[in-house]
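Local shape tokens

___
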Amino acid sequence: MLKVYKSDLDWMNYRLVKKDITQHHIVKREHGGKLEWSNIALLMPVAHQYLHLIECKDYETYVALNKVFKMINSQMSAPTDAQRELVEYLLSEFEKVHRWDKGSKGKLLIQRKYLIRG
């Protein structure tokens, strides 16, 4: 997949380190999603972790991000600048709303590492 999607950024605009990349199932396995190209988004571990936090806090944003991932898969090439901007917009809007949300232990849910992209 990395040979087709040539980029130095993953699909959520985090710096790509090839040895650390994870595969996010766009349609979850428990919902019938298969381990095939059309159902995989290439994400760094920090992006993958952040995406699942977004899923828990704002399911609509999670679904919107997965729709962008499906578009990227359908074109069989790296994300376009417009797609990257859309992802960045969705993330920044999520961060505006949830920036100060805290977990059960009183720590901020949106960690600094989630804010360092590109």
Remarks:
- Residues 18-115 form one domain.
- The chain has one domain: 18-115.
- The mean pLDDT is 92.
